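Aim 2, interim progress: modelling of the 2-acetamido-2-deoxy-beta-D-glucopyranose-bound target.
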Amino acid sequence: MAAGHNHHVLDLCLFLTTAMVLLQNTMAYPLSTNSRWIVNEGGQRVKLACVNWPSHLQPVVAEGLSQQPVTEIANRIVAMKFNCVRLTWPLELAINDTLANSVTVRQSFQSLGLNDDIDGIQRKNPNFIDLPLIEALKTVVNVLGQKGVMVILDNHLTVPGWCCSAGDGNGFFGDRFFDPTAWINGWKKMAGIFNGVSNVIGMSLRNELRGRKQNVNDWYTYMQQGAEAIHSVNPNVLVIMSGLGFDTDLSFVQNRPVSLSFAGKLVFELHWYSWYGGIDWGAGNACGKFRDKVKWKAGFLLDKGFPLFVSEFGIDQTTTSDKEKSYIDCFLGWMAETDVDWALWALTGSYYLRDGARRADEHFGALTTDWILARNPYFLARLPFRARSALRGK
Ligand SMILES: *[C@@H]1O[C@H](CO)[C@@H](O)[C@H](O)[C@H]1NC(C)=O
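Predicted structure of the complex, ligand included:
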């Protein structure tokens, strides 16, 4: 081997070592909060640029596995520049041992008559087909970890299925399918299962609190208990709290702080679609109205020194209506300015089974129906992936 070549090898080694150190620095888990910023172990800001990957529908398997190999999907997530996944799961997976540990992926699809998906999973992800459902979830998390993708585990609802409506019994503590004690026990279980899985950096306590029973007092009682339960089992993760009214309203936190026994882990989440908040996006002053509203509903939290994670937003990426255009122009502007952390709805692709429809296309999805290509690269290019502000106050 020529000397010159050796030099190149040495240079390459140095380069690789440096690159790995850099990678390790940005991936210096666990994360915590410093005022309104989410930071890594070195105190550097980590901006969450996530995509929602649903795993809470009836089969209780991450969507898309009958379409593409899980490693290909993970590669696609990285190629689209997302650094994180908000992975949704139903509470039943945590509180029903039979469902979690005895029902396999194959059996789950069989019970729903989804034989095409069984064939698809056998071809694309053969190692998944006979895994118990909880192992399937763990495997998805691990594959994402191998690709350096962070994961936020989101308890989306209790009963597996499409979400959410005000009267579906999953909306608020005390609803038919939402027993606070079962929920807390389920979280202890999940927090334990994923304790030590370093790319699981956050836990989103409950998606879109809503419905007739919702009230501020119970919100504090149970959200605080839930956060304490998670932290007692897994002190590494961020605990992420949804507001009321389908996660559009955190205004009550303005005058009554959340009280926890630990610091540096609390993040709030907000959802906002074009049909949220009663804003007429066809009207000329819509953006101003939105900005006023979002400020007192949740934006104020940034000034109070809490990170705000906009964990659901999005548009029909196939045929965007004029109103959606108006909404998304305004919303992306606000997200870029405020430099919030975020998660797009959704990664899907298509769903195995949504509301009775097989291989249901997700018009809001980042990927095409077959989970191969970006559905709308022009839209993805507009998302605020990079941090705008340097981390201050250190
Ligand atoms: C637990 O899950 C299994 C499998 O889906 C189901 O048959 C059973 O009814 C569930 N148990 C409860 C208590 O919901």
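The longest strand covers residues 150-157. The mean pLDDT is 93.
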